[in-house]
């Protein structure tokens, strides 16, 4: 009986060893198929644009009266300005750190 048991165990081990490369390939393919969905969730969280301005509001909206516009005014588009919505040049540091190329929105009043 003991010899039969040893033979069965050896046979099972041999079969598992033969299956190991196939199972490894299946595991790799499964991982590669699932990985894009896992990283997208992380990227979405990391890709927040507004990190600190009016976070208590569901949407940030600023209104500028064009009658009050001087000859030239620069408005922030990087969401890093300490004087938001007016640009303070914070995009320069942001661009340097991230390799981005964001700049301000510049409004000019037509001279007559």
TrEMBL record:
Signal peptide: none annotated. GO terms for cellular component: endoplasmic reticulum membrane; mitochondrial outer membrane. The keyword Iron-sulfur applies. The chain crosses the membrane at residues 16-34. It is a single-pass membrane protein. Residues 59-97 form the Iron-binding zinc finger CDGSH type domain. It holds the Pfam family zf-CDGSH. GO terms for biological process: autophagy of mitochondrion; regulation of autophagy. One of its GO terms (molecular function) is 2 iron, 2 sulfur cluster binding. InterPro entries: CISD1/2, FeS-contain_CDGSH-typ, FeS-contain_mitoNEET_N, MitoNEET_CISD. The keyword Transmembrane helix applies. Its cofactor is [2Fe-2S] cluster. SMART domains: ZnF_CDGSH. This is CDGSH iron sulfur domain 2. Belongs to the CISD protein family. CISD2 subfamily. It is found in: Endoplasmic reticulum membrane; Mitochondrion outer membrane. Its main location: endoplasmic reticulum. It comes from Amazona collaria (yellow-billed parrot). Keywords: 2Fe-2S, Autophagy, Endoplasmic reticulum, Iron, Iron-sulfur, Membrane, Metal-binding, Mitochondrion, Mitochondrion outer membrane, Transmembrane, Transmembrane helix.
């Amino acid at each position: 009986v003991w010899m039969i048991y040893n033979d069965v165990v050896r046979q099972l081990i041999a079969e598992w060893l033969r299956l190991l490369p196939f199972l490894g390939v299946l595991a790799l393919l499964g991982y590669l198929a699932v990985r894009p969905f896992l990283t997208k969730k992380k990227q979405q969280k990391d890709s927040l644009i507004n990190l600190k301005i009016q976070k208590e509001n569901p949407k940030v909206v600023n209104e500028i009266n064009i009658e009050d516009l001087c000859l030239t005014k620069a408005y922030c588009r990087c969401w890093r300005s300490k004087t938001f919505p007016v640009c303070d040049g914070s995009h320069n540091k942001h661009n340097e750190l991230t390799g981005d190329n964001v700049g301000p929105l510049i409004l000019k009043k037509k001279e007559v």
